[in-house]
Amino acid sequence: MKALVKKHAEPGLWLEDVPEPKIGINDVLIKVDRTGVCGTDLHIYNWDDWAKKTIPVPMVVGHEFVGDVVEVGSNVNDFHPGEVVSGEGHVVCGRCRNCLAGRRHLCAHTEGVGVNRPGAFAEYVSLPMSNVWHHADDIDRDVASIFDPFGNAVHTALSFPVLGEDVLITGAGPIGCMAAAVVRYAGARYVVVTDVNDWRLELAQRMGATRTINVKQERIADIQTELGMKEGFDVGLEMSGNPSAFREMLANTCHGGKIAMLGIPSEEIAIDWNEVVFNMLTIKGIYGREMYETWYAMTVMLQGGLNISPVITHRLDYTEYEQAFKLMNSGQSGKVILKW
Ligand code: NAD
Ligand code: ZN
To answer: Which CATH architecture is the domain 2-151+289-339 placed in?
Structure first.
């Protein structure tokens, strides 16, 4: 089968013929239909320091996808050929304390699809049945293909109550833009999104931000005054991984405010801890999605009218993957979908 492979320890990906995955008795074989290109894939493509120390070469990459079940192992009763599914990208151990307690997103032994085990940028992918999500009939296939990053947005956005609250989102990447749509849908009052990229801020606006800020030109504190806010944002969603974005967030959060951090910093971030202590802030780290409460919430919000499809800005054939990564590197894209 065709697959996009990290073949050499250097920048790039290679379209290769590789053997089809074999399934075990608990696995599901899926014919991949569409895939989303994630920031993680971009790190792997660009071969940055994180990728160098994380990705064993060769590796079939990719983890955001929708596809059709073609075969199931002999222990699998809940999935059948022809069903439309996506995969949860974190494969957990099932045996640690958190897994046994049902808190699988907190597993300390998580493996990543397309990171530590063969991924979905391929004609077929095999996953344990416990990692397969059966889509409701009315979910659009393009949207279904990005349930993984949509789930990051939902997990972060719904970490703290937002009804009637003012929410600051730092980073208008695809996940920040989807989070803006989610918190608006969940009843937030002001949804202020920051970035340094006007193209992306415009996308955030289209997706539900009530005010966008290019932090190279405007200060968040001034916008609080403009909006008549007196005490700071109630909830912060850090979705850039940028040190100064996080510091600005701390400085603009109200006393007792809550911050959910999804953005992955590439370096240590020094902060003034007095702001955390004296302002009594809660800071929560977010990794992946809750299995499967987040998936359930995504489905019912879409069925209830939430629209995240504007985040998909480009659709290409998988053979055009070089162009997809070029687009992602340019910063002039939301989600890029590859058709297999
Ligand atoms: P992205 O890289 O596309 O978006 C990040 C955005 O932050 C960019 O648009 C960038 O211009 C912006 N930015 C840079 N400096 C900024 C600043 N000073 N202030 C405000 N914005 C700034 O990433 P994404 O795919 O949308 O993902 C968002 C973040 O979440 C990334 O850091 C990603 O690595 C991380 N992530 C975490 C998880 C997890 O499970 N924790 C999963 C997926 C992604
Ligand atoms: Zn575990």
So the answer is: Alpha-Beta Complex (3.90)
